[in-house]
Every structure is written in C-alpha cells, then in structure tokens.
C-alpha cells in the first residue's frame, strides 16, 4: 500500500463496529463464550464471505455478531478496530453500533454500549483518536421496536451523537421511521441514514426531507437524479461512500465502474470509508487505495477526500480546522 495513503490524516464516518469482527477474534470469542460456529477454520469463514447482495451479507453479519456476549467482548472488538485505525492514521472516527442485533439475543443494551464506549475512551487517551458513537436502527424491524431502542439509549444520550438507519434498505424507506427520528431530534440527537445504496434516489430525498439527516450513508445512487446531485452539492450534504463494500455487494460490477470520482468532481462532499472492513476486504486505507488504483485518483483528489472527511464530521468547526491544518501540513511536507 502507498505510504502516502496510509499516513494521510483522515476521518472514518461510516463504520459498523460489528463489521470489524475479524475471523480470528470471532473464533476467540466463540471459544470464550462456548458458542458453536458453523465454520471449522478462518479459511472457511473467509470463503463464506462471497456475497450476492446486501441481504446475503446481512445474514452472515448478524450470525457473526452472536459471539459478542459480554462487555469485554465489545471492548475487545472496538479496541482491535481502533488499533487498526491508528495504524492507518485515522484521526477521528464516528462509528455505528446496532443495539437491536444484541438486545434481540438477550444481551443488554448497556453491555454493548459500555464495552464500546470504554474502548473509545481508551482510544482517545492511548491512541489519540477522537470518536463519536451513532446508534443505528435496524430498518427491517418495526418503527415501534426502533422507538423502544431509542428509549433505552436516552440515559446515554450525552455520549451518543446521532441516530442512523441500516440493514435491508429496499422496502424499508426512511419514511417508515419519521416519528422515531422526530423524537430522536427532540432529544438532541443528530440524524444520518443509509440511503441510495441499493434503494432508489427517492429514499435519499426522504432521508433529507423527512429525517433531516446531516449526512447520507452510501448515497451512490444519487447519480441517477441530476436534481438530487445538484442539491447535495449545493447544500454540501456529505456522502459516506464505501468503495470496497459497494463492489463486494455488487452495487457496482467492478471498482473501475464506481462513481466516487464522478461524485467528487460534481462538487459533492464525498468521503471514503470502510463500512464492514472484516467482511469486505479492507480497512479505510485499503478503500482509498483500491479506489485510487481503479479510478486513477490524483494526490489532489485524495487530499480532497480526506479534507471532506474532516468537514463531514460532527466535530466543532475549530476541531475540524485543527485536523485540516494537520492534513495541509502533511500534504505540504510531501509536495
Ligand atoms: N448497509 C446496510 N446495513 C448495513 C451495512 C450496509 O452497508 N453494513 C452493516 N449493516
Ligand atoms: Zn453501512
């Protein structure tokens, strides 16, 4: 991998912590918690990671999460991600967690939250990575279940910056969750939503107009709607794009066909992220690298993507400026 990309100061804004579960840790946690896995070896796990679409991935992803049982498991998972992120000079990260995939198995909301939160605190003090937490609702479940999850999160609302929407997109439009998101906003949460990954541009409009999102997760299908594209550029509503994920889940046939470069060059605040790195073949630097190679991104374009990542964070303008100054300094020293 290019040292330039690895060491580029960057923010990661689209990362499901459950999607960082590496097969080795999956086996370790299964052993610790006496859980039978349907795999015999790490190799067999990796062979199962061939997906046809989003749903075929989600089935395996939720199954993998079952090894997460105790607070320390969530801590170990998050700590492993943060170490990896530090090695790729991620300076700030805003990570999703899916409480419903744990509470539905009888694991308390607090167990998942406390383990993740403690590791994020240590990430700040020991690795110098700042972070924020985003609670993501599973959109294949009902709005009532999302609302019950929001209620569980209220005691922790000072350390959860936003709510989001993930899981099976098609047939589960943002409008289904309008009331939940209204309530979340009234409680002080910011909002984001996965939209336009597999779903149509209309879902992106709904996320903007009904859920009042600050960012769109994925959003690559915005390219099909010129008016939407113009709106996203004008309002600088960021897209958290995940190139390796999109190719693995067959949103694009190949990386060469990915529209990241077109989005960026339409003036959209596009960012590069890893989504579920353990399942999709790479962390954030591998995503930058794969896109760079297939789309022939210039150093200026890589710089712009990293700058966008800081501008798209939920940090204060002052904190964003500090990180952008670090990025500017890095690029000046090199050029
Ligand atoms: N899309 C929807 N749901 C998800 C994803 C994704 O890319 N990753 C984890 N849950
Ligand atoms: Zn995602």
What does this structure look like?
With 335 residues, this protein is an alpha/beta fold. The chain has a single domain, classed as Alpha-Beta Barrel (TIM Barrel), CATH 3.20.20. Helix content is 51%, strand content 12%. It has 17 helices and 8 strands. It has an 8-stranded parallel sheet with strand order 1-2-3-4-5-6-7-8. Helix 5 packs parallel to helix 7, helix 8 runs parallel beside helix 9 and helix 16 runs antiparallel to helix 17. The model has no long low-confidence stretch (mean pLDDT 97). It binds hypoxanthine and zinc ion.
How would you summarize what this structure contains?
With about 325 residues, the protein is of the alpha/beta class.
Question: What labels describe this entry?
Answer:
single chain; alpha/beta; TIM Barrel; globular; binds hypoxanthine; binds zinc ion
Shape: globular
For the largest sheet, list the strands in their spatial order. 1-2-3-4-5-6-7-8
Strand content: 5-15%
- From the coordinates shown, what is the CATH architecture? Alpha-Beta Barrel
User: Which value, in Å, is the CA radius of gyration?
Assistant: 19 Å
Which fold does the CATH topology refer to?
TIM Barrel
CATH classification, class level: Alpha Beta
Strand and helix order? HEHHHHEHHEHEHEHEHEHHEHHHH
Number of helices: 17
The largest β sheet comes out as: 8 strands, parallel
- Fraction of residues in helices? 40-55%
What is the typical, i.e. mean, pLDDT? Answer: 97
List the uncertain runs. none
CATH homologous superfamily label: Metal-dependent hydrolases
Total strand segments: 8
Structural class, please? Answer: alpha/beta
The rounded distance between the terminal residues' Cα atoms is: 19 Å
Number of domains: 1
Q: Cofactors and ligands present? A: hypoxanthine, zinc ion
């Amino acid at each position: 991998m290019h040292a330039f990309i690895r060491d580029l100061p960057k923010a990661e804004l689209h990362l499901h912590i459950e999607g960082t579960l590496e097969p080795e840790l999956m086996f370790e946690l299964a052993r610790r918690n006496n859980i039978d896995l349907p795999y015999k070896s790490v190799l067999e796990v990796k062979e199962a990671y061939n997906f046809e679409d989003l749903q075929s991935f989600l089935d395996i992803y939720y199954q993998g999460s079952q090894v997460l049982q105790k607070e320390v498991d969530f801590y170990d998972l998050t700590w492993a991600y943060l170490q990896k992120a530090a090695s790729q000079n991620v300076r700030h990260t805003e990570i999703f967690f899916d409480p419903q995939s744990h509470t539905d198995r009888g694991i308390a909301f607090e167990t998942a939250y406390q383990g993740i939160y403690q590791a994020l605190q240590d990430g700040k003090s020991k690795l110098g990575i700042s972070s924020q937490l985003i609670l993501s609702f599973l959109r294949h479940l009902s709005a009532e279940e999302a609302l019950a999850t929001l209620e569980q999160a209220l005691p922790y609302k000072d350390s959860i910056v936003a709510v989001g929407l993930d899981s099976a997109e098609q047939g589960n439009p943002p409008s289904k969750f309008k009331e939940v998101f209204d309530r979340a906003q009234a409680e002080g949460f910011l909002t984001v939503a996965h939209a336009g990954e597999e779903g149509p541009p209309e879902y992106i409009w709904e996320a903007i107009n009904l859920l009042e999102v600050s960012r769109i997760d994925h959003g690559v299908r915005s390219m099909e709607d010129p008016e939407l594209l113009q709106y996203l550029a004008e309002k600088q509503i960021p897209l958290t794009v995940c190139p390796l994920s999109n190719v693995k889940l067959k949103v694009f046939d190949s990386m060469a066909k990915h529209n990241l470069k077109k989005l960026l060059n339409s003036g959209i605040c596009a960012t590069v992220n890893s989504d579920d790195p353990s399942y999709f073949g790479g962390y954030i630097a591998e995503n930058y690298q794969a896109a760079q190679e297939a789309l022939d991104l210039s150093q200026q374009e890589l710089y712009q993507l990293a700058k966008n990542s800081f501008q798209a964070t939920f940090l204060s303008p002052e904190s964003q400026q500090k990180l952008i100054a670090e990025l500017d300094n890095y690029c000046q020293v090199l050029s």
